[in-house]
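Students often ask what a 'structure token' actually looks like in practice. Rather than answer in the abstract, let us consider KIB1-4 beta-propeller domain-containing protein, a protein of 372 residues. Its sequence is given first.
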Amino acid sequence: MAKTDWTNLAARPAGPIADTLLANDVADYIRFRAVCSAWRACANDPRVESVFDRRYHPRRWIMLRHAGSIRGRTCFLNVFTAEFVHVRLPDPRRHYILGPTAEGLVLLCRKGTLVVQLLNPLTGQLTDFPRANTLLSSDTSYYQIMDNELKNFQLLNAGLAENSMVALHYEFNRLAVAKPGDKNWIRLDTSCGIISALPFEGRFYCATDKDIVVLQAMEGQQPELVMAASYELERDGQLFVYLAENHGKLILTRWFPPNHSRGQRHGTCMVYQVDLDAGKTVFMPPVDEHAVFISFYGGRALIVPIGLSPSIIADTVYLCKRKTTRDADPVNFIVYSLVDGNVVQDCRAKCPCSIVDHLSCYVRGELFRCIN
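Now compare that with the structural description of the same chain:
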């Protein structure tokens, strides 16, 4: 039998194959280009494209904590297939790693110049943004103060907006935006109280104390937050809400803290779809063979298929708690059933360095401060 020379695959079939791989996962596209020079010639080099080009965003990948690194390469997890890859990021001795965006990109800050950079960890695309000093709470040029703030920078949510802008939700209730070439970051009025934020269909949405707002950046005008949808929620006690995307839908998860006066120990969770056309939230049934991971302290949320790990229970919400040395509670998270509202106990999910543990650390934002 004659041996097939795949390197001589004609451009006509090779080009559509590359496009199909890119539409599925940019990691497969990169592997395709790495096979040989002939195949690379049939597929565009992502590094010459803008970091804003959504075709090359590693949306399915999240960065794992430093313990997952091998020989200086950082570990990334595909939250659909459970595949791991190891990627060499810029030298952490010369960069602060501020955190991820919802698109799978990574925000860096150069230690010498404090220039913020947006990196695509799989393609190597890199774009500069304004210096980080206009993000910080201390109005000072004293290096040790800025160094301490950047090492402990708490990025809750981040993402692209309006095709050429990056929005950062950080330090509980701060929101800042910038474009490449801007001199400073623009910090927006957040008196509305931002709890969670997420880029969705090219726009940046924020869940606040009162409703859901969207970032609007008109040419020649100061960016502002405008009303996008109202809550159709029961308002009994403190409001904890989290935005996430699932199959092209904007999802809002609500956690009701326990009411100890009523004998509740764990509280309850409910899930809603945000109907942007109608401008309201609509209660929805369980998330259909998926699980929602949210942080006990608010901010980031992630929806994953249960096939990612046998330890993930269908139609549940994982409320992830941050462990401290003084915390006597042995449970790192509470698992709520969206079917009957009961708390699910799953000992298999408590193993350190399991996929569930990685997802829990990701939504808690603990992956990045330990690297700097």
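One point worth highlighting: The helical segments are 11-24, 26-34, 37-41, 143-151, 355-364. Ask yourself how you might have guessed this from the sequence alone, and why that guess would often be unreliable.
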